[in-house]
């Protein structure tokens, strides 16, 4: 379930440092999430950290993936870190 930051984003800068997969970056108008790097924090935390800290709740699910798919993505990202 890759997440997406909507245009309601107020660019408060709290989500980016919370992402363990470095999936969040500043876009042209507001922060964006790279769906290829977003695991909804599976492999790191029980809940998406960006959603936990977002003061305006502008980070809904965008792409539905199973927990197994997210875990596989997590493992692939860990391999590229090595």
What's the short version?
The protein contains two helices and four strands. It is α+β, with helices and mostly antiparallel strands.
Q: How much is the radius of gyration in Å?
A: 12 Å
Q: Shape, please?
A: globular
- CATH class, please? Alpha Beta
Please count the beta strands (DSSP E, at least 2 residues each). Answer: 4
* Ends apart, CA distance between termini: 25 Å
**What is the tally of helical segments?**
2
Main sheet properties: 2 strands, antiparallel
- Uncertain runs are none
How is the largest sheet built, in terms of strand order?
1-4
CATH topology: Alpha-Beta Plaits
What is the CATH architecture assignment? 2-Layer Sandwich
| Share of helical residues | 10-25%
Secondary-structure class: alpha+beta
Strand percent estimate: 5-15%
Order of helices and strands: EEEHEH
Structural domains: how many: 1
Mean of residue pLDDT? 95
Quaternary class: single chain
Protein name: Ferredoxin
Domain 4Fe-4S ferredoxin-type: 1-29
GO molecular function: 4 iron, 4 sulfur cluster binding; metal ion binding
Cofactor: [4Fe-4S] cluster
List keywords for this structure.
82 residues, Alpha-Beta Plaits, two-stranded antiparallel ribbon, two-stranded antiparallel sheet, 2 helices, globular
Explain what this protein looks like in three dimensions.
This protein has 82 residues and is α+β, with helices and mostly antiparallel strands. It has one domain: Alpha-Beta Plaits. The protein is 24% helix and 13% strand. It has helices at residues 49-53, 67-81, and strands at residues 2-3, 24-26, 31-33, 61-63. The strands form two sheets. It has a two-stranded antiparallel ribbon. Strands 2-3 form a two-stranded antiparallel sheet. The radius of gyration is 12 Å and the shape is globular. It starts with a strand and ends with a helix. The relative contact order is 0.27. The mean pLDDT is 95.
């Amino acid at each position: 379930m890759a997440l997406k930051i909507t245009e309601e984003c107020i660019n408060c800068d709290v989500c980016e440092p919370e992402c363990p997969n470095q999936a969040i970056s500043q876009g042209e108008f507001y922060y964006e999430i790279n769906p290829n790097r977003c695991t909804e924090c599976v492999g790191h935390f029980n809940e998406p950290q960006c959603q936990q800290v977002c003061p305006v709740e502008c980070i809904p699910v965008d792409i539905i993936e199973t927990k197994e798919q997210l875990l596989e993505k997590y493992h692939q990202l860990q391999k590229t870190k090595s």
